Amino acid sequence: xxxxxxxxxxxxxxxxxxxxxxxxxxxxxxxxxxxxxxxxxxxxxxxxxxxxxxxxxxxxxxxxxxxxxxxxxxxxxxxxxxxxxxxxxxxxxxxxxxxxxxxxxxxxxxxxxxxxxxxxxxxxxxxxxxxxxxxxxxxxxxxxxxxxxxxxxxxxxxxxxxxxxxxxxxxxxxxxxxxxxxxxxxxxxxxxxxxxxxxxxxxxxxxxxxxxxxxxxxxxxxxxxxxxxxxxxxxxxxxxxxxxxxxxxxxxxxxxxxxxxxxxxxxxxxxxxxxxxxxxxxxxxxxxxxxxxxxxxxxxxxxxxxxxxxxxxxxxxxxxxxxxxxxxxxxxxxxxxxxxxxxxxxxxxxxxxxxxxxxxxxxxxxxxxxxxxxxxxxxxxxxxxxxxxxxxxxxxxxxxxxxxxxxxxxxxxxxxxxxxxxxxxxxxxxxxxxxxxxxxxxxxxxxxxxxxxxxxxxxxxxxxxxxxxxxx
Length: 472
Description:
The protein is mostly helical. The chain has two domains: 9-188, no CATH class; 225-471, Methyl-accepting chemotaxis protein (Helix Hairpins, Orthogonal Bundle), CATH 1.10.287. Helices cover 86% and strands 1% of the residues.
C-alpha cells in the first residue's frame, strides 16, 4: 500500500523521533494510570501494569531505537496503558478518548502498519472486555456492557484509522520523496563539488526520479559542454597560433610589397626614361636615316660625275690622239720640206731651218700628246677605279640606309613597346599598391581575429573553470 523506503538517514530519523514521542507518551500514560488508579482506589493495579509496560518500552527504546520491533513494542505498550486507564476508571466513557488520541499520535511514525496494529488491538480489547464485563469477570470497557455500543466504537476506530492510514501513506510518500531527494542532493553536493554522476543512487519516488533524470541529462549536457569547451579552447589555441603565423607572414608580405612598390616605382621611372630615350633615339635614328639617304644620293651624284669625268677623259684621249696624228703628219711634212730645201740649196736653207723647227715642234707636240695621252689613260684608269670604289661605297651606303631604316623601325617598335611597358608597369604598380592596401587591411583583420581568438580562449577557459566545479 505504501512505498518501501530505503534505509536512509532521514527515514531512520523519522522512526527514531517517533520512538521518542511514543516513549514520552508511554511515560505520561503511566503517570496518568497511577493518578487514575489512586483516584479510583486501585493504585496497586495501576503500578503492577504501568511500571512493567514502561520498563519494557524503555528497554526496547534503549536497545533498538528506530527499529520496527521497537515501534511495535511501544505501540502495544501505549495501547495497553489506554486499556488500563479505561479499566481503572471503571469504563468511564471519557477515557475512551485516549483511543483516538493515541491513534492520532501514531501518525508520527508515518507508518500505516502501526495504525492497523493499534486499531486491531483496540477493537479486540473493546469486544473482549465488553464480553468479559458482561460475564462479570471484573473487566470494564464501558459503564455497562453493550455489544452494539462496541460495534459503534469499532466503527469510529475503523473510520479514523482509515483516514489516518491515508494520511500516513501520504506522509510516508512525502518522507520517501524527501529522503530520496535529500539523498540525490547529497550525492550531487560532494566534496565541495557538484557531482552529476547519480547513476548509483537508487530512487523510487516520482519527483526523485525526475530530479535524477534531470541531473543525468545535465550530466550528459555538461559532458558535451566540457568536451565542447575543451575543443573550443584547443581550437582557439590553434587559431591563435595560426593567427600569429599568419600575422608574421602578413607583415613579411607587407614589407615585401612595400619593397616591391618602391622597386616598381623605380622601374616605372626607369622604363619611362627608357621610353623617352627610345623616342629620342628614334628621332636621331630617323635623322641618321635621312642623312644616310641624303649621303646615298650624294654618292649617286658623285658616281654620275665620275662617269662624266671618265667620258671627258676618253674624249681628251681622243683629242690627244688627233694631236699626235697631226704632229706625226707635221713631222712628215717637215721632213719633206727639209728634203725639198736640201734640193733647193742655198735658196732653201731658210726654209730648211723653219722645217727643222717645225719638225722639232711636231716631235715635241707628239711627245707631249703621248705624255698627255698616258696621263689621261692613267687618269682614266684611276677614274674607273674611283667609279668602282664610289659604286661600292654607294652600295654600302644604300645598305647603311636600309639598315638605318630597319634600325629606325626597330627603335620605333622598341619605343612603342616601352610605352606599352610603361602603361603595363603603371597598372602593375597600381595593382601592387592596391595589394599592399589589401595586405594592410588583412593585417588589421588578423589582429582583430587574434584579439577575438584570445577572447574566445579566455571564455573557453572560464567555461572550463565553471565545468570543473561539476564532477562528471
